[in-house]
């Protein structure tokens, strides 16, 4: 554990809680891509199956349970409780275009051709692109609520902090996981355009809206 | 070959 890893995890947690609270307080999931949330629930489910096979630490177990629980709670709020506010027409990204290639890649490029390892690899690859339906939705509607942009900022910041964590671990522990690193770089790059808009617009008190 | 328990990150 190092400071980048810890702040990365807390940033991830902040993002998840911000989204849940936004939906709960406003009683609405307008502007939120249910498809991205389904992908994140799938990511956590396939990655954290090791909860059943190996114990790493209390911190690790508790955080995994919180992430999984919140992911399913979010999906429940969007597709069940506040279904009437869900903007399905603008959430038109085709999930199979992500899940199928990612599944194929996980079978081809992995550390070990075993069931759990392939699911872990699948989750790493899928997480790197899981935000695309949300970004696609924002590009379609041309705007995002400010609270939604805070969610995206913390979600992007988390993987960027993990990049520093991996640099740290490489130098001080000699540890590196090429699959996680490459996917993490891809994931962070996908947020760069958004980070720019966040800093230049949202942090200056303006709403995030894209030029028509 | 990776040790499966080495996935200690979240």
TrEMBL record, chain A:
Similarity annotation: Belongs to the ERD2 family.
Coiled coil stretches, renumbered: none
UniProt GO BP: protein retention in ER lumen; protein transport; vesicle-mediated transport
Membrane topology: Multi-pass membrane protein
Record field: transmembrane: 65-82, 119-139, 151-172, 178-199
Listed GO MF terms: ER retention sequence binding
Protein name: ER lumen protein-retaining receptor
InterPro entries recorded: ER_ret_rcpt
Main location: membrane
Record's keyword terms, sorted: Cytoplasmic vesicle, Endoplasmic reticulum, ER-Golgi transport, Membrane, Protein transport, Receptor, Transmembrane, Transmembrane helix, Transport
Cellular compartment(s): Cytoplasmic vesicle, COPI-coated vesicle membrane; Endoplasmic reticulum membrane; Golgi apparatus membrane
UniProt cross-references to PROSITE patterns, sorted A to Z: ER_LUMEN_RECEPTOR_1, ER_LUMEN_RECEPTOR_2
Cellular component terms (Gene Ontology): COPI-coated vesicle membrane; endoplasmic reticulum membrane; Golgi membrane
Name of a matching Pfam family: ER_lumen_recept
